[in-house]
Design a protein that fits this description.
With 498 residues, the chain is of the alpha/beta class. The chain is built from 16 helices and 19 strands. The strands form 4 sheets. It has an 8-stranded mixed β-sheet with strand order 7-8-10-9-13-17-14-15, with helices on both faces. A 6-stranded mixed β-sheet has the order 1-6-5-2-4-3. Bound molecules: zinc ion. It comes from Allomyces macrogynus (strain ATCC 38327).
Length: 498
């Protein structure tokens, strides 16, 4: 039975929602079963939990073994509902978030039942931890489903926090950023039969209408227009598909903007590999190869919704194409004439993401005058080897940007870690006898995720003076065949901090 879950953050401990089927309290290991628990239970729904209710936890503590989870029953609105108590991991070392977002997500998923309205209370040390923990919780219960069966139902998971240092949680911001993350998940989970390059553009236009902000504008360059205007990368990759490729440029330009941020996302709505065809095992899941563009769009959505970074002009560029097979497909040995003016000899049609990104960053740095340009993409399998499945790999020419994005990751749970920046020794990987460069490396055992980044960097405008950041999200964009919504909160936070 398809259940659509809404996630709402608010002061629900002060004002308990009616019609709850369950409640749960989670906190870092060692915090839930301490003396604070009765204080939490004394408010709202937990008021019904009498002293006996906490006994199992205290009992377990006395006997020296903390249980993973304990459920008691409490009266709420004249009916008995289960109230679960559980704990998430506490250790957070140097390269992890300010709270264990991975564990928070897992534990929240376990204690909240799959159906019915529920109240989830998360015990944290600070409002900053509440923010990261809240965004982790929101990634459970993704929206996309085409399961059939009995009547579909809707339910709401209400989330509130007990904050130890009593700093104030910004519920509005949490709701806006969480909604953007869930939109990213939905777009990543949607197959190409529904989300192609045309319906994607329609969805972006509908979002712009919904945001209804006079400082927001949209420009779409599509199909043959791309060819005429010199976007050889996006056009070359996407020209064989049933639906035409597109470059979408969203802009939010406040009147008093004094700096500019350009976000460029890879939007390959399906990646068959092209004529360098992927094997079946490598092709399954390639509906998600537009995750970079979805994250960029999600960040834009959240920035506009919360009116964040009011002194910053923000541009979001979505490079949309399907890497399909047809008589018109671009081929190995073809030479593409890129928007940057450079020529690229194709030696692997499956290294297509960097081609569309190259046109995106070239446009951004030639026309939008950014202080920082960021490209984000599910780009290389090698990223997983370099920085793992939780941390995105970053490459940047600016130490200051690197520091800021590391901080943004720790604050949001969209974690990142730096990869090698050394264009002078890696650029020879792309040497071509007949063009300015090839699109795929000579030696796959030589920092190939950084090489892919340097390929994109080579297409920045020659006179570009700003900073550049590349974020490879091949690993963290998905987990267990579902979109994680990775990247939207990271870029949102970066826009606020840079
Ligand atoms: Zn590919």
């Amino acid at each position: 039975m398809p259940v659509t879950t809404h996630v709402k953050f608010g002061a629900f401990l002060a004002e308990t929602p009616a019609d709850l089927s369950a409640a749960a309290l989670i906190g870092a290991k060692g915090t839930v079963q301490l003396a604070e628990l009765p204080a939490v239970t004394a408010s709202s729904v937990f008021a019904a939990v009498d002293a006996n209710a906490t006994a199992p936890l205290h009992l377990a503590e006395e006997h020296g073994s903390a249980p993973a989870s304990v459920t008691v029953w409490a009266t709420h609105d004249d009916k008995l509902i289960p109230v679960a108590f559980s704990q998430f991991a506490k250790e957070t070392s140097r390269h992890m978030a300010i709270v264990r977002t991975d564990s928070v997500r897992d534990v929240a998923n376990k204690v909240v039942p799959a159906k019915g309205n529920a109240l989830l209370v998360v015990r944290v040390e600070s409002a900053a931890q509440a923010y990261a923990a809240g965004l982790a919780v929101a990634r459970n219960w993704p929206l996309y489903s085409r399961k059939t069966g009995a009547e579909s139902t809707e339910r709401t998971v209400y989330v509130d926090f007990v904050v130890a240092d009593e700093s104030a949680v910004d519920y509005d911001e949490l709701n806006a950023v969480a909604a953007a993350i869930r939109d990213v998940q939905r777009r990543v989970d949607t197959p190409c039969s529904e989300l192609n390059t045309v319906t994607y553009v329609e969805e972006v236009r509908a979002l712009v209408e919904r945001l209804d902000d006079p400082t927001v504008s949209i420009k779409v360059i599509q199909g043959e227009e791309l060819k005429e205007q010199g976007f050889g990368g996006i056009y070359g990759v996407g020209k064989a598909a049933e639906f035409p490729p597109a470059l979408v440029i969203l802009s939010r330009v406040p009147e008093n903007a004094d700096k500019t941020l350009a976000l460029v996302g890879k939007g390959i709505v399906y990646d068959s590999g092209g004529l360098s065809l992927k094997p079946t095992s490598g092709m399954v899941g390639m509906k998600g190869d537009m995750g970079g563009s979805a994250a960029v769009l999600g960040a834009f959505e959240a920035i506009v919704a919360t009116k964040a970074a009011p002194e910053t002009a923000v541009h979001a560029l979505l490079c949309l194409a399907e890497n399909a097979i047809d008589g018109k497909s671009f081929k190995n040995d073809d030479i593409l004439h890129m928007y940057s003016g450079k020529t690229v000899e194709i030696n692997n049609t499956d290294a297509e993401g960097r081609l569309v990104l190259a046109d995106g960053v070239a446009y951004a740095t030639q026309h939008l005058n950014p202080d920082v340009v960021i490209d984000m993409a599910t780009l290389t399998g090698a990223q997983l080897i370099t920085t793992g499945i939780i941390h995105a790999g970053i490459v940047t020419d600016s130490e200051e940007v690197e520091t800021t994005v590391l901080k943004s990751g720790k604050a949001t749970g969209d974690l990142v870690f730096p990869m090698l920046y050394a264009p002078e020794i890696l650029k020879s990987q792309f040497d071509s006898p007949v063009a300015d460069m090839k699109n795929s490396v000579k030696d796959r055992m030589n920092a190939q995720s950084s090489c892919a980044a340097h390929f994109v960097q080579a297409h920045l405008a020659k006179d570009y003076k700003g900073a550049w950041l590349h974020v490879d999200i091949a690993g963290p964009a998905e987990a267990a065949s579902r979109g994680t919504g990775f990247g939207a909160a990271l870029l949102y936070e970066f826009a606020k901090q840079f």
